[in-house]
Design goal:
mainly beta, Jelly Rolls, 2 domains, about 0% helix, globular
Length: about 240
């Protein structure tokens, strides 16, 4: 019997710092909800908007897989390993914080906001050497298809992390249906709807809704409008 959890967009935690407007699906910083600590290994899902010329100063992380997915505008990244780069829509960035890393993220543009998803996944290996990677994806490869953007395997499509997790992005036209098969036994999937309406396993979802499902073998996805969404398959036992 499938288990599910539904997080409507308007029920998320919210922090507006002026320069940063952040929506928190799970407990983060000053937002604490004991019922929303994580979904399996998925620990943080922040929907962030950074004002022009602003950003996150240098700050530390350790023993966490940190994934950034830009949705609009771009973000400059600097870290203690000497990496300096800019990520933009179509890119995906990953850091294995491991034994410890410092980084900063800035919107250097003077005339436009930056929107991105900041995602933390609890790793299956602690105290690894810190690691950074970013890739540019072909956005056309997610049109009416599920584009793999993350996996546990360095040789597979997308970036890789220290966890038995797979992420996919989809941009479906209205009426398109697809099945998604769970990759690993004991995993669940958390779907986050970026834009539009979709039904997943009979659950209607709208823009910025989140839906977790586990104890199933597959998902049935149907686009009720043109829709963009992210599927995050993660282990449920951590």
């Amino acid at each position: 019997m499938a288990n599910t959890v539904l997080h409507k967009a308007e029920t998320r935690g919210h922090a507006n710092h002026g320069w940063l407007n952040s929506m928190h699906t799970f407990s983060f910083a000053n937002y604490y909800n004991p019922d929303r600590m994580h979904f399996g290994a998925l620990r943080v899902l922040n929907d962030d908007t950074v004002e022009a010329g602003m950003g996150f100063g240098k700050h530390p992380h350790d023993n966490m897989e940190i994934i950034s997915i830009p949705l609009e505008g771009d973000l400059e990244h600097k870290d203690s390993m000497g990496n300096v780069s800019v990520i933009k829509h179509g890119d995906i960035q990953v850091m294995s914080a491991g034994t410890g890393i410092f980084h900063s993220e800035f919107n250097r543009n003077s005339d436009q906001i930056t929107k991105f998803l900041q995602i933390w996944v609890i790793p299956n290996k602690k105290n690894v050497a810190p690691r950074y990677d970013q890739i540019t994806l072909n956005i056309a490869d997610r049109h009416n298809k599920l584009q793999q953007i993350l996996s546990p395997n360095a040789e597979d499509e997308g970036v890789w992390i220290f966890q038995n997790a797979w992420f996919h992005l989809g941009e479906f036209d209205k009426g398109v249906s697809k099945e998604y098969n769970i990759k690993a036994k004991g995993n669940g999937v958390y779907a986050f709807i970026l834009k539009g309406d979709v039904t997943i396993n009979d659950q209607p979802l709208k823009t910025r809704d989140g839906f977790g499902i586990w104890d199933v073998d597959k998902l049935f996805i149907k686009a009720d409008t043109d829709v963009e969404f992210l599927l995050m398959e993660v282990p449920m036992n951590i």
